[in-house]
Design brief:
The chain is an alpha+beta fold and about 350 residues long. Helix content is about 25%, strand content about 30%. It is built from nine helices and 18 strands. The strands form four sheets. It has a six-stranded mixed sheet, sandwiched between helices. A hairpin with a 2-residue loop joins β4 (about 60-65) and β5 (about 70). About 40% of the residues are buried. The chain binds adenosine-5'-triphosphate. Adenosine-5'-triphosphate (ATP) binds near residues 41, 44, 46 and 194. InterPro entries: AAA+_ATPase, ABC_SmlMolc_Importer, ABC_transporter-like_ATP-bd, ABC_transporter-like_CS, P-loop_NTPase.
């Protein structure tokens, strides 16, 4: 018997919709694991999460916990916690009142206060018990909502875009804090997001969804290094795709440089017929951009932009297309100029075609 959550061949179909929103998804989340459901808007992530919660009826398949179907168990009896984009705090209760809601120890005041204090410490809001929730910032509200969701020790926590209403910097910090809290409490969780960085920061494994189907489930590092298809690679942010040439093929120098760099780095999956997927940084500006190096490739600069202290250059490279190359901070040039580039296998993945 498998432990934790098992979704088997789950189908969710809305009346009047031509195609099912979830189309035969198999997904297991063993106890203690955090899985992110990642995919573009409208791909069916929330529908799958809601079906697991019991908020959406199954049109097919089954949802089980520890091998026992919960398909006929009502939402509040599944032992699953829920956290949404807007934490939906009770405006008429203070922070402690919100967190204590749903606690089994509710009637034992000492135990209840101790548990509320423990949860508020855990989410980084110690001593805020008496705060009116209307005075909290967006990030603080979500921390309280997380404490409240964890209070009854749910056997599975379902999170639907819990950080997406927050600004970027806060989202990045809270994603890391959220992971720490889930790991510290040993919480099994399914986390819906459309943000690749967030999924990678929070989850042990990432499940990529598209058009109602699961395309790939893998640990973040494996997913990034070995996307199963061009569609997955595109969604993760790979920008360009290059066919791996045959031994005697005449190819553009840039393609040769990429293949050589990938082979030197021991990248698997380079048979003829395979594809190289290039992320930002598959080329870096070499020797301050001055051409002439034996291993250089050149590209024409289209756009120059600064991103968090790094310079990113959008370049057109013969035989490859338009890609983002990286340059040292402060490096500059004029759009239209030719610059020298070096291939970097660290931002290249091999696909089987
Ligand atoms: N209650 C509903 N009735 C009819 N169609 C719905 C309903 N809820 C969702 N859909 C449709 O089902 C599909 C999947 O929606 P869902 O919200 O699950 O996607 P999602 O990946 O979570 O998207 P987002 O990231 O934008 O929230 C979409 O085409 C959506 O329009």
């Amino acid at each position: 018997m498998s432990d934790g959550l098992q979704a088997a061949d789950v189908v969710v179909r809305y009346a009047a919709a031509a195609a099912p929103a979830v189309d035969g998804v198999d997904l297991a989340v063993p106890t203690g694991e955090v899985v992110a459901l990642l995919g573009p808007s409208g791909c069916g992530k929330s529908s799958l999460l809601r079906a697991v919660a019991g908020l959406e009826p199954l049109s097919g398949g089954d949802v089980a916990w520890d091998g026992v179907s919960v398909a006929d168990v009502p939402v509040h009896r599944r032992g699953f916690g829920l956290l949404f984009q807007d934490g939906q705090l009770f405006a008429h209760r203070d922070v402690a009142g919100n967190v204590a809601y749903g606690l089994a120890e509710r009637r034992d005041r000492v135990a209840r206060d101790a548990r509320v204090a423990e949860l508020l410490d855990l989410v980084g809001l110690p001593g805020t018990q008496r705060r009116d929730v209307g005075t909290l910032s967006g990030g603080e509200r979500q921390r309280v909502a997380l404490a409240r969701a964890l209070a009854p020790r749910p056997r599975l926590l379902l999170l639907d875009e819990p950080l997406s209403a927050l600004d970027r910097a806060l989202r990045e910090r809270l994603a890391l804090d959220l992971r720490d809290v889930l790991v510290a409490t040993g919480t099994t969780a399914l986390f819906v997001t459309h943000d690749q960085d967030e999924a990678f920061a929070v989850a042990d494994r990432v499940a990529v969804m598209d058009a109602g189907r699961l395309l790939q489930v893998a640990a973040p590092g494996d997913l990034w290094a070995r996307p199963a298809s061009r569609r997955v690679a595109q969604f993760l942010g790979y920008e360009a795709f290059v066919d791996v040439p045959g031994a005697g093929d005449a190819v553009a120098p840039a393609v040769r440089a990429l293949v050589d760099a990938a082979r030197t780095a021991g990248l698997a999956l380079l048979p003829t017929g395979g594809v190289l997927a290039l992320a930002a940084g598959a080329f870096v500006v070499a020797r301050d951009g001055h051409p002439g190096g034996a291993r250089d490739v050149d590209g024409v600069v289209r756009v120059l932009r600064s991103r968090r202290g790094r310079t990113e250059v959008v370049v057109d490279v013969d035989g490859v297309g338009r890609v983002s190359a990286l340059a040292p901070a402060g490096w500059t040039c004029t759009p239209g100029e030719r610059v020298a580039l070096r291939a970097d296998a660290a931002a290249v993945a091999g696909l089987s075609g």
